[in-house]
Amino acid sequence: MARLYIFIRENVMLLIGIAGGSGSGKTTVVKKLIEALPEDSISVVSQDAYYWDNGNLSPEAKKEINFDHPDAIEWDLLVKHLDMLKEGKTIPMPIYTYVTCARSAEVIPVKPTEVVIVEGILIMTCPELVKRLDIKIFVDTDGDDRLMRIIKRDIEERGRTVSDVLRHYETFVKPMHNQFIEPTKRLADIIIPQGGSNQVAIDIMASRIRMQLNQMKKEGL
Asked: What is the pLDDT of residues 130-173, one digit of tens each?
């Protein structure tokens, strides 16, 4: 019976990747997709949960962590967890805190559902992850708009000053975006301009997901 359950889960799960630059509105897009789709049909896996644990570093060293480089992510663990979800298993998603640059001793259990969204700025820089995605979405937002959101977010959520945010943006965020994130746009099946404010694009995406889920259920069940 367990084998039959796993077989069914592998055939009805839709794995969606949502990428885009820092501050592009990915989180808003995810929230609106969740609101538009059947309740309890979506699980979300955040790339940010898989940053390497750097809690042992000094305060000075923590300021120099490049969160916008692919090497900052423990990709093997993230890919392993996605495979576990496809197998019908609940995963222990880490909890990462930017303030301490460390993972919590606690985890968040994420259950396998019909739709699993994996979101993050760098997810499409990992070939092993990309080849597992059924739908690849890139949220495309103007650089000035992204910077304003980054300043607000980093001050409120990460305890940084305006000068710290701007220095970090010029040193890490902007060059890494140009080098690693922007080029992954060409891998996307769908590009959503204007981020979460593009309700038309989100409605179209939700409709497409519902249609594909219904088709998968007919074929798999």
From this structure: 999 999 999 998 888 888 888 888 888 777 888 888 888 898 99
Which residues sit opposite 73 in a β-bridge? Answer: 51
H helix or E strand, kind and range, residue 115: strand 115-119
Cα–Cα distance measured from residue 64 to residue 168, given in angstroms and rounded to the nearest whole number: 8
Tell me what pLDDT residue 2 has.
Answer: 42
- Here the CATH number for the domain that contains residue 178 is 3.40.50.300
Total domains in the fold of the chain = 1
Rounded to whole angstroms, the Cα distance separating 122 from 136 reads 12
Let me know if 54 is exposed, middle or buried by CB neighbors in 10 A (0-12, 13-18, 19+). middle
Separation in Å, CA 112 to CA 102, 219, 221: 26, 19, 17
